[in-house]
Here is the input.
Amino acid sequence: MVEVEAPAADRVDSGSPLPRGNGFGPWFVALLRRAWRQLTSMRTALVLLFLLAVAAIPGSLLPQRSIKIEDVNAYLRKNPDLGRTLDRFYLFDVFSSPWFSAIYLLLFVSLVGCLVPRLRTHVTALLRQPPDAPARLNRMPAYAEGQAREEDLPKLAALLRKRRFRVAVRGTTVSAEKGYLKETGNLLFHFSLLALLVSVAVSHWYGWHGSRNIVAGPDGRFCNTLQQYDDYGLGARVGAGDLPPFCMQLDRFETTYTANGQPTMFRAYVRYSDGRGAADKTTEIEVNHPLRVGGAGVYLLGRGYAPIIRYTDRFGKSQTSIQPFIPNDDRMTSSGVATFPDANVDPATRKQDPNDQIGFQGLYLPTMSSHDLTMAQSLHPDERNPRLLLVAYRGNLGMDAGLAQSVFTLDQSRINSGKLQKFDTTKALKPGEAWPLPDGSKVEFLGTRAFATMTVRHDPGEMYALGAAVCLLVGLLMSLWGKRRRIWLRVDGDRVEAGGLPRTDYSGFQAEFDEIVQAARKEGTFR
Amino acid sequence: MSALSDQLLIVTVLAYLAAMIGYAAEFSFGTRGVVARAATRARERELVTVGGPADAPVSPAPPAAPVQETPRGRAALVGRLAVALTAVGYLAHLATIVTRGLAANRVPWGNMYEFVLVVCFAGATAWLVLLSRRPAVRPLGLFVTLAEIVMLLIAGMRLHTEAGPLMPALNSYWLKIHVSAAAIASGVLLVGFVAAVLTLLRLGHDKGKRSFPFTLGQRLPDAQTLERLTFRVHAFAFPIWTFAIICGAIWAREAWTQYWSWDPKETWSFISWVIYAGYLHARATPSVKKTVATWIAILGWATMMINLFAINLVVTGMHSYAGVK
Ligand code: HEM
Here is the structure.
């Protein structure tokens, strides 16, 4: 059997016995040293690696705040007690939880503790000559003997050098070693892991992102400030003032479909200014083709319709709402609201009764069935037979209560408590149609505009992460496919002995060794 | 074209099935097993005795050379036939994938059904390459084709979807790179999984276990060969898997804004990656038993399967492109 040296990290015993009776200090130091030795052992690293895998599992099974906070809130509403318990253990924030962080930080400490000595050993090995031959070459896994003269030694050494062995000649012995790239690759791989972690931290600290629905048209123009985002996240080291100034507007949105209504292309035609006062530039943004501006990427992540709803109150004053409706299915059945908190200002008193606000809950079907008029579902995502289904409410919308509210539904608790009251039956409107309400006001559906859901993200760590990932892969290949081996030749009188030792599991070693001996025989230096 | 592809899938499965029967026949009548070897050894002893010194006792039974030669030769023949049938299935498999691509007018790995077909194809490729380099591993064919057939049947019966165009999110050249790398890695790991299972059977048999699955171990190549093979296959697949994850991350940055967002598919790829890394470490650590290391490889495959089936079909995430209704 081939003797393969155990990696240094694996040669771990439980440490020397803890000194007793010498006082607390030395005992504590010994304890620490032993703990460090344990932590940096390969076995501990393996256990931590598995713990990390296990710890990631709940993050894929339970909804996560970092991915979709709405799902977490829905879960908490449905299972309040269980939810609260799970939340206490950070199970909705698994990947930023203290226990998850603890595992990978320990793993990386273990990695550093293991890598630094290995790096030192490896550098020493690189600087050092290949070690002298063992006393008895015939004990080596590969062995050959023959006849040679001392003058042949340089030729033998050259033969090995040509095969890219690192060669040292000491007296009548040639020592050769090859495959240093394996350990180099291995170290590269592990250091890349550390670099990856640092890049992720950079992304976390210095990155920011925000998203928003941009309705087509100049009035939907959006500028890169926090107030204009529907939601956003800033890294720990980013302030609101660090966002690069740029503005952007959606001119047109184009979608193509297959016959059965599957979309095949989304394209947003936008104009944007990069904040340096220059004129707007126009461009197109598609899924998979973000726009890069001001060091950030602008991504198209969704789209939908924003119905144009005009309400004329009983005093004859008109207001228009153009709010995005969120799609509920892939055929773009969309729901949303149009709210008119400033409606019904009495021209005589210039006052508005807060219980006289108007709101519409709406459902938009781009293609309504022409047979089944009760079906509240669109048949096709494109606008082929559009209908807007509206329910009118009057009362207090509760919009100034200061609570965060969904922009896609009216407050159901106000409807339940009677603060908001339905004041007519549901009505389905075609574009251009008007609906007179009992109080003498009217609502009109004027058509729709497209909106695009855009996410803007700046991630300064991503290029470092990519670099680390590439190094990681290169290191991995070197480490998995490299083979470390040594060959010695010793001339003694007119006899020559050759011994070979593969230092890693390498089944082709014998063949390589034989080939080298064969080549030497051909040259006549090994007879 | 789409219907043709579906029919070719049936041809593929039938050819693999026939190949499996061939491998099974060779497996049970072949000479590599302990029983067969013992029988051969007995015969050789007889022959030696016959040709021995004159005063040696006369051999009681004449050497039954022709009788013993036939099943041995026939078994090898059946084994070679099985390889030929595998090749036939492989060509049909290739044709299934190509016609599917032509029907959809795009690369044929845009949904889960197609992905599983390609994974199996990569597995079959890995198997044929392995076989051409080391004919001695042929007894593994029975289990490789079994795994292929199971996966293909699941794909054909449970995951089948009509050929169609891609949704916009998939319309990127990264689809070609990321998904094919993931499929190749998964296919090779499938073969690695089979090798790992057989290693455990063989190790168990060597330890004296004689209950059902371990009885199979007796006809397999020796434990060290199998264990090394398992390692080689995994060491080949792991960098491809790493590459697939890196490409996935680059693509995620183009399509979803962020290179890593702990989407369930990403999370499970990470879990598989960590476990396979654990396997490679465990195997490089002399104090960890080979059985334990091999079990880790099997665990790795279990997480791959969870990622493929459970995450695609049960959990929804951004990666929900399975297209299975
Ligand atoms: C994120 C965690 C880690 C991953 C994903 C990882 C991955 C890998 C991989 C893929 C290999 C190549 C296996 C081989 O050459 O056979 C390797 C080798 C190695 N790793 Fe790690 N590693 C990690 C952490 C660690 C830690 C913490 C240590 C030390 C305590 C360590 C020590 C080693 C050693 C000694 C080898 C060389 C084994 C050999 O001789 O080939 N690794 N690692």
